[in-house]
């Protein structure tokens, strides 16, 4: 049989029509869900809560919290689904429908801007107000900052992470250092004293300043400066905020002082995994580290062969009054805009994020920093002196974070890329580099609008 | 001009019935083609002209996404350059190496089974595991390869941590997993008629002349197949590049510490990684689709040229 054009015209037309119909609909599942679901009046409601925790102790802790919530609200039943990666929950929120989660948590704060701006997550501001909860009096300032975007409080903090200094007390004593450094100049001097060269490598490095040295990212250093990244007009201010240039310059000078980029980079490649007993601070390869509160639990478990302690990470000399601050981030939780069980979902979110006992018990179970001011001061917290350092950093009003942006962490990538160029000596004109980076960030933000 | 007579109704009905029958027979393929090829392709082109963040309804953006990718997205040209480097170098070396190994193994008198197995096995290793193993072996600080090079007094490259060595290191990884090409080249080489070699030998042809004028023309369709599929696969190169970058950088990624594909210094940044990064990390589906369309266009262009040029090499039956 000969197949000619006219023979294929009908199926081709049908296929084209189907494609066009699908394209025109361009499936977007997000939409307004229901308001009152009847749960307030005692109606039985089942909500779905997706989270990313996967370790046994973490899953038990969140399940215990949910069980306590269900006891308080017998008519609200929570179906908990754990070990959900962000990509998967985003896909579910896109698709919407009855199987999509009502309450979602995420380990990254980077997507808050997108979730708020595109109305994927419900603005919790009116709900907080309705229940008489003052966010500023309830949550630490930095945590409040990374959970909202342009006034839309579409998420709330569900435990947090604070960054501080870990130092090897045994090495400090051997080098004749009696107290942890408080300013960058003290820190540089201590790092140099603690560094023991070994040929073209090190027997012990005082501190690994390179941006790939695990937690020593530019954003974490900038937490010590209180850099804001964006101006009031929403444009990047990395070229005009003098703290950004100061941080890049300071890090580069420290790199040069401790042996130079190439030598440090080669030493870095010999480090074990960050989240293992082979972490370079645990093994004694570095005598000081910038790290989060979770390391206290790891060190207690790994029992390194030296004494260690924690302190706030030093601050620039001209900001000595702000000593005690640090970078902060954490887990966030929100309500899917498409959820038809908003009232019940809000009750769960409110309980998980604002009930002091719930926040404290969860923090105790997974060794994270509590995310409310009341919980940070709770006597029920299991906190030794080393962990208390991080509670104080979280409470410090000068602690800083990376703000939410409409295109996720793209602005951080741009700044990171510049930081790599500067530390390696490939970009020596810092002003030009910062101007180009600001332009790049603004172009990306414009593209996302 | 000839006069066209109207088609009788009976003939028209017959043709229509034939058309329906044809469509019915073709429908499984048509549905598959439509759902898995035509629709995704049309969608990609459509979304490349739309502002679409994956959450809210798409709106028409004209050429804005194209302008952004070409003129304002600083990583595009780096990614394009890296991808083309890999296509030019990795595909060429893989084809040459696969053919060379195939030739050697077909000539081996004893232990051919062992060598076939030894060269084929690495191909079976999952890409993520293989890349992590290579990152460990080539670690400049603790890896055995640099340790050995040092003992021999040879330079010790930074491999996956050095921008000038990262792509060659990925190429080494690709050559290690040459088993797929080795097998098809071996099959092709064993299929070359022996009498042609005998005739060439009688005519006094050297080994190189026998390869050039007997072997190569006979296996040219296979070479062409290897090059075309190699180009398409390399245009989609993602897993090994992102795993090597992630392992070597040591960055887990998270708030304040973004994992940047392409470590070190953007040297392993490829177009498929860009599609992921733009679409799923920056929520810019439109720009991700622009890159996907460019990938498709380049792949089609390469394939068309290779098929045209290769057509002269393929003998007529």
From TrEMBL, chain A:
Keywords: Signal, Sugar transport, Transport. InterPro entries: Bact_solute-bd_prot1 (IPR050490), SBP (IPR006059). Pfam families: SBP_bac_1 (PF01547). SUPFAM superfamilies: Periplasmic binding protein-like II. It comes from the Bacteria. PANTHER family: ARABINOSE-BINDING PROTEIN-RELATED, BINDING PROTEIN COMPONENT OF ABC SUGAR TRANSPORTER-RELATED. Belongs to the bacterial solute-binding protein 1 family. It is found in: Cell envelope. Residues 1-26 form the signal peptide. Part of a binding-protein-dependent transport system for a sugar. This is Probable sugar-binding periplasmic protein.
UniProtKB/TrEMBL annotation, chain B:
It is found in: Cell membrane. Keywords: Cell membrane, Membrane, Sugar transport, Transmembrane, Transmembrane helix, Transport. Residues 80-306 form the ABC transmembrane type-1 domain. The chain crosses the membrane at residues 20-42, 84-106, 118-138, 169-190, 288-307. InterPro entries: ABC_transporter_permease, MetI-like, MetI-like_sf. Pfam families: BPD_transp_1. Its main location: membrane. Belongs to the binding-protein-dependent transport system permease family. This is Multiple sugar transport system permease protein. It comes from Kitasatospora paracochleata.
